[in-house]
Amino acid sequence: MKHLSEIILKFLIFSIAIFNHNLFSQLKIKVDNSQIDRSEINFSQSYAPVLSKATPAVVSVTTQQFVKRILPGGGNPIEEFLRRYYGYPRLYQPRIEEVPVPAGIGSGVIVTPDGYTITNAHVITANQNTGDLVEEVLVKVSEKEEYKASIVGYDRSTDVAVLKIDADRPLPFVTLSNSENLEVGDVVFAVGNPLGVGKTVTMGIISATMKSELGVLGEAGAYENFIQTDASINPGNSGGALLDAKGRLIGINTAIISQTRSSIGIGLAIPINMVRKVLTDFVEGGELRRGFLGVELDETELSGGSLIAKVIPGSAASRAGLREGDLILSVGDKEVNSVNQTRVAISQTAPGTKLPLKISRAGVSMTLFVILGLMGEMGNDILPGVNLEVLNNKNRKKFAVPADTKGVLVIESTGAQDNFKEGVLIVEINGAPVRSLQDVKKNLQRGFNRFYVWYLGKYRFVSYRIP
Question: Domain spans of the chain?
């Protein structure tokens, strides 16, 4: 009897483990953090063995839009004669059909055997001005193997998109490296589908790292931290792989700097560590989760660091004791020498992380510990002079917001906007419900905007003009 009880107990433990494993999607990526060999004694005359293992994971990504076309109805001449002169009804009406039209072409990289694939966000964007996504994504794994891919998620601020292929077999995938280990002069390979000619490999070196403030992403608040390479990258390479000498993925090719739209030796790739953060967030959490400090930063004339110009009340920075005029010297174990480096370091850290910040205050160095908030929980750049926060149990109780009332809360106002006092809850903008800071941004328009707000137990309409 005791032996039987032990068997039942083990079975229950095993079943619970299987249930917990299947409850959340787990990312089966393979990571190799080892350094490459930078000695001068092992020069290779061919990288074919390395590339033959890695390049099958690089795919062609084509996109399509569906347009409606009117096709004429059919019929013989006698029927047309009877309809025209004797009023007979039309037997064959014109048909409206949706026809797929190619929208673009790029590349991608499979990073798990179950089909998670990385590409650029701009590859799956149908209209770069409006940001509308394409209606269909096709991924070509080989000459005879093509799949429809679903869009798991995309992030325009880093230009990374995650796709999912559902195949009936394990797919070839690439091993990820640690892009923090890269050095200028390392040999690299750009793999993709340039100009639609098919899978192509070009070779070069890393020309520079941490290239930023180039404006190539064209997004407000974008995170630029590129690897620069002279490996040839051309239109169609977007979303393809940048591999190191071990065949590991170190970056996603995304842009070139050129006056001719063809490669002149200045190619840019997103470091794989940034890509991996986006990938993991979307697959395991279903949404992008970035750390949020809650400061406005300015460049400094000193040799390093970034200057705090403003601390947002109620933010993680405020709770940690950071002040206006503090100079941030390092974030965690990373030394920062510019505003961009500081922003990138914070954004790549998970919300809730207790992070040491080395600062200089009035010439005195010190370390403060901050527990990062979640990007999007607070906002101060949407409505000038107004700080917004998503409703939560704490602020709902503070301002006595009823449980059935939803919206985005004003937690601070400079007074420049009389309609948006502290405690005002924005319920609708231009007739559209507002539940997040993204909803606020999405529904605002140039000119006058109509807000439906709740304040001190009463609802009313207010207007706000955006120049």
Answer: 52-165, 179-285, 291-374, 379-466
User: Does 52-165 match 179-285 in CATH topology?
Assistant: yes
3 state SS for the chain: CHHHHHHHHHHHHHHHHHHHHHHCCCCCCCECCCCCCCCCCCCCCCCHHHHHHHHHHEEEEEEEEEEEEEECCCCCHHHHHHHHHHCCCCCCCCEEEEEEEEEEEEEEEECCCCCEEEECHHHHECCCCCCCECCEEEEEEECCEEEEEEEEEEECCCCEEEEEECCCCCCCCCCECCHHHCCCCCEEEEEECHHHCCCEEEEEEEEEEEECCCCCCCCCCCCCCEEEECCCCCCCCCCCEEEECCCCEEEEEEEECCCCCCCCCCEEEEEHHHHHHHHHHHHHHCCCCCEECCEEEECCCCCCCEEEEEECCCCHHHHHCCCCCCEEEEECCEECCCHHHHHHHHHCCCCCCEEEEEEEECCEEEEEEEECEECCCEEEEEECCEEEEECCHHHHHHCCCCCCCCCEEEEEECCCCCCCCCCCEEEEECCEECCCHHHHHHHCCCEEEEEEEEECCEEEEEEEEEC
CATH code at 52-165: 2.40.10.10
* CATH code matching the domain that covers 379-466, chosen among 3.40.50.12780, 3.30.1490.20, 2.30.42.60, 2.60.40.10: 2.30.42.60
Q: Yes or no: say if 315 and 322 are a contact pair by the CB < 8 Å rule.
A: no
In whole angstroms, what is the distance from residue 420 CA to residue 169 CA? 56
Structure token pair of residue 243 = 């591999």
pLDDT at 293: 92
Q: Find out whether 412 and 386 touch, Cβ atoms under 8 Å.
A: yes
Whole-model pTM above 0.90? Answer: no
Active site residues: 122, 159, 238
Could you give the CA distance from residue 212 to residue 235 in angstroms, rounded to a whole number?
21
Task: Report the pLDDT value the prediction gives residue 204, as an integer from 0 to 100.
Answer: 96
So what's the pLDDT on residue 303?
79
CATH superfamily ID and name for 291-374 = PDZ domain (2.30.42.10)
328 forms beta bridges with: 306, 359
Residue 379's pLDDT is what?
Answer: 59
Going 292 to 293 to 296 to 302, the CA torsion angle's sign is negative
Q: Which residues of the chain have pLDDT under 50?
A: 1-2, 4, 7-24
Distance, CA of 299 to CA of 292 (rounded, Å): 19
Q: What is the pLDDT of residue 22?
A: 45
Q: Architecture of domain 179-285 in CATH?
A: Beta Barrel (2.40)
pLDDT for 302 = 82
